[in-house]
Amino acid sequence: MNKTIELIPYRPEYLAQVAQAIREMLTTPPLYETVSLNDVISQLNADQGRESFGGLLAVDEREQVIGGMWWFGLDGLGLHERWKPRFTPREAIPMPNGRGIYIASMGMIPSVRNRGLGKYMLSAALSTLELESDWIATVAYRTHSASLAVLHSQGFVTLPLESTQGQSKVALIKHTR
Fold first, then answer.
1. For residues 58 and 70, what is the distance between their CA atoms, to the nearest angstrom?
2. Where is the N-acetyltransferase domain (predicted)?
3. Cis ω before 160 (30° cut-off from 0)
């Protein structure tokens, strides 16, 4: 059976499904993070109010969200301040020039991983985001080698920073200009 996956812009009516998908991504192996559905909804609601908020959802033929990503705009100081409590050494945290995009969350639910869907979704988003920004930054988990490989294949560079948080996270950036 051939399953159809469609990429659609984020819309608020998908909030509950998106939050559930993100929670599933974070709480299953290899991450095992403890995060409530309300925490995810609160974060997504907060980010929707940020400058240049946008998102892309991967939905299956039943219109169920199976993955997605969301982002917002910020300047170099905003990125520096966001990463300052999360990474060391502090003096190595970048403060890039110009306007950038921060990809706050990105991924696919575990049952559809390793099929190229994440790369497809990221490539689609980057085709627009690269035109609108001087740089794009994100954080990924060191334990998700496939995700890191996709980000690297799209031109993201892992920065020489160490996570101050429990899970081993890495900071990545891509300069577009």
1. 12
2. 5-177
3. no
**How many independent structural domains does the chain possess?**
1
The edge-to-edge listing of strands for the beta sheet with 135-141 is 6-9, 54-59, 65-75, 99-108, 135-141, 169-175, 157-158
| DSSP code of residue 2 | P
Residue 30 backbone phi and psi in degrees, to 5: -95, 10
Q: Which two tokens stand for residue 136?
A: 């794009």
Query: What pLDDT does 18 receive?
Result: 93
3-state secondary structure of 53: coil
Asked if residue 1 is part of any domain, the answer here is no
How far apart (Å, rounded) are the C-alpha atoms in residues 129 and 80? Answer: 20
CB atoms within 10 A of CB 58: 24
Task: Return the number of other C-beta atoms located less than 10 Å from residue 25's C-beta.
Answer: 23
Rounded CA gap, 99 and 78, in Å? 10
* Residue 1 pLDDT grade (very low, low, confident, very high; cuts 50, 70, 90): very low
For the record, the structure tokens of 139 come out as 């954080």
Q: Which structural domain, as residue segments, surrounds residue 90?
A: 6-175
Is 151 contained in some domain? yes
Indicate the SS3 state at residue 90: helix
pLDDT confidence tier of residue 33, bands split at 50, 70 and 90: confident
